[in-house]
From TrEMBL:
The record marks 81 as: Interaction with target DNA. Its cofactor is Mg(2+). InterPro entries: Endonuclease-V. It is found in: Cytoplasm. The gene is nfi. This is Endonuclease V. It is an enzyme of class 3 (hydrolase). Keywords: Cytoplasm, DNA damage, DNA repair, Endonuclease, Hydrolase, Magnesium, Metal-binding, Nuclease.
Length: 225
DNA sequence: GCGACAG
DNA sequence: ATCTTGTCGC
């Protein structure tokens, strides 16, 4: 994968190492209908302040979607952003924030793709393997694949395909608002991921877990300054 | 060969 | 992600 001209060229040696690590992790990904009883649903998000990264986790009761916990971890970031390798930059710190949750969730909604990735290991899948926890990804922009624009009415769905296989769904979570891209991360299947993303999308484009994690990232950001 | 590229 | 102004609509 080449890289966008507006980004600094990554070290070929680093990319080689990360690609190898990605392959190891990808082999551990399990895509199947989860057997859990969904009672606790988490959302997470990352934001940056100079050389530091703020990683946030929110815990919601399901299906009420009532906010129960909000935690964060703040520390230095190790790697630059490289398209296709987002998880190596954000996952380590998300794991540290996750450790602070008193009640561990049954499922985690991640801001980014699951298997809708060039090598089928987006940040949602990688984080799921690292935590051995079911995950699904909800991204605002496509990374890989082709799709038809879903109808402008909330609930419309269109498949996201890549190399002959369906890797996710493009779903309209709000009338006349740009759709989001949903894909299973780990210990999850596309049908369930899609249903949960739609069911937790209330009055906004982003489903509640992701939207609240996003919101508290801003709140905590003001706190750490 | 020319673009495109999660956060 | 972050930097940024005004503007449109519920």
């Amino acid at each position: 994968m080449a890289w966008p001209s507006h980004l600094p060229p990554p070290d070929p040696l680093v990319v080689k190492e990360l690609t190898a690590r990605q392959e190891e992790l990808r082999e551990q990904v399990i895509l199947q209908k989860p057997d859990f009883q969904l009672n606790w649903l988490a959302g997470c998000d990352s934001s940056f302040i100079g050389e530091n990264i703020l990683s946030v986790f929110v815990l919601l009761k399901y299906p009420e979607l009532e906010l129960m916990e909000k935690v964060y971890h703040y520390g230095p970031v190790e790697l630059p952003y490289i398209p296709g390798f987002l998880a190596f930059r954000e996952a380590p710190n998300l794991v540290k924030a996750y450790a602070q949750l008193q009640q561990k969730p049954d499922l985690i909604m991640v801001d980014g793709h699951g298997i809708a990735h060039p090598r089928r290991l987006g940040i949602a899948s990688q984080l799921g393997v690292l935590l051995n926890k079911p995950t699904l990804g909800v991204a605002k922009k496509v990374l890989t694949g082709k799709y038809e624009e879903p109808a402008p009415v909330k609930g419309s769905i269109t498949p996201l395909t890549h190399r002959g296989e369906q890797i996710g769904n493009v779903i309209r979570t709000k009338d006349k608002v740009k759709p989001v891209f949903v894909s299973p991360g780990h210990l999850m299947d596309l049908e369930t991921a899609t249903a949960i993303a739609l069911k937790t999308a209330l009055k906004h484009k982003l489903p509640e877990p992701t939207r609240l994690a996003d919101h508290y990232a801003e709140v905590f950001k003001a706190e750490v300054r």
